[in-house]
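Dear support,

I submitted the protein below through the web form. The confirmation email said the job was done, but the results page showed an empty box. After a refresh the structure appeared. I'm attaching both so you can tell me whether what I see now is the final result or a partial one.
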Amino acid sequence: MNKNITNNLIILFTGSYLVILSIIIYCSEFNTNVVKDITLITTSFSTLIIALLLYDRFNYRKIIFERKLEIVLDLLEHIKKTRIQINYRNTETLKIFVGTVSVDRLEIKNLLLNNYFNKEAKIILEAIELRDYVDEIMRFKTNPFMPIEIANSLEFLSMEYFEGVEVKPEYQSEYIKISINKSVKNFKDLKGWYNLGKEISFDTFIKNYLKSLDEIENWINKHSNTEAKLNL
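What the results page shows now:
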């Protein structure tokens, strides 16, 4: 709680206490019951003042919020630095697309609007190359100060295991190899490439990043006096 607010509340409660005390004394005979009432009011008032002083002293809500804000902003910067390299191949139509996209709303929107490749094709990844990035994201996700709604939006990167696709029929004719913050080394075959334990289209995968950006922006705006105009 802001120190000025605490001081104002103490002044307000002190004034109220003195007014109530004056009314009781003025309107009552000064007997045992009045003494009990005054004692009760005084005790309650003293407890309230002590609670306010201790609350302001430790200021734990402000400390926790500052830690939350710090970890959210760190995550936002980390996500915004993400570069995804795309290597699409369709062996039946002989269509190939190679490109990169940042986790940026405008870049992603432009990519999805253009018919460069089939965005519904399933993504595959090089597990070892991706591990460091995923581990870093999971450290954000499991941080005790990370707001729950933002942590939940990162669930799509919780990769418990990878499944090799080298001999899977559904990946032989069409796939999208993606590499995050690194260059794809193996363009020619599926050896060493994996899915995330389940089939996920590129469209779903990239839109999950947008959902994370939305959750971050919503949380920041919710806890700000003015709308944050972020470059997302």
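Response: this is the final, complete result; the empty box was a page-load delay. The first helix runs from residue 3 to 27.
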